[in-house]
Amino acid sequence: MLEKLKKIADKYEQLSQQLYDPEIGSDQQKAMKINRELSSLRESYELYKQIETATHQLNEAKQLLENESDADTIELAKAQLEEAQVQLEGMDEKVQLALLPQDPNDDKNIFLEIRPAAGGDESGLFAAELLRMYLRYAERNGWKAEVIEHERS
Questions:
Q1: Is the dihedral of CA 89, 94, 99, 101 positive or negative?
Q2: Chain centroid offset of residue 128 CA
Q3: First-to-last C-alpha distance (Å) of the chain
Q4: Core-most of 14, 42, 98, 108, by most CB within 10 Å?
Q5: What are the pLDDT digits (tens) for 104-149?
């Protein structure tokens, strides 16, 4: 799993370097495409950097434990080792989530049309309740919801 994260991190760094290329700076379509790809990889990249830092701290603490004889330094190294191990253990689930393939429709908006059908006032009341339900669902999930009313013909 870490190899996949490393590939993502390498790709992220490569794309970041491409943004500084004057050729891409003059082509807004390419720049927008690269920025979209960077934003989709950012979370995985940051997770990889956190794992890299925690692994470095873990190795550093192990070296201190092997080479030091001072009691205070050994105590600090043990604390650092324990903290790094806890961080790495907590990141396993995050790594699995980060490596799941993304749905291509995640970033797209939808249009939902709700209109009453045959049934008179009751169908209009049901349509209104259904609209409120979807609006509350969107609000609870932090999505932007907008109601656009059309004139009835």
A1: positive
A2: 34
A3: 57
A4: 98
A5: 777 677 888 888 888 888 998 999 999 999 999 988 988 888 888 7
How many CA atoms lie within 13 Å of 153's alpha carbon, on the beta-carbon side? 1
* C-alpha to C-alpha distances, 100 to 32, 73, 93, 96, 103, nearest whole angstrom: 24, 41, 11, 7, 9
At 130, the amino acid letter reads L
C-beta separation of 53 from 62 below 8 A: no
Question: Cβ(91)–Cβ(54) under 8 Å?
Answer: yes
Q: How far apart are CA 81 and CA 77, in angstroms?
A: 6
DSSP H or E segment with residue 49: helix 28-67
pTM of the entire predicted model: 0.61
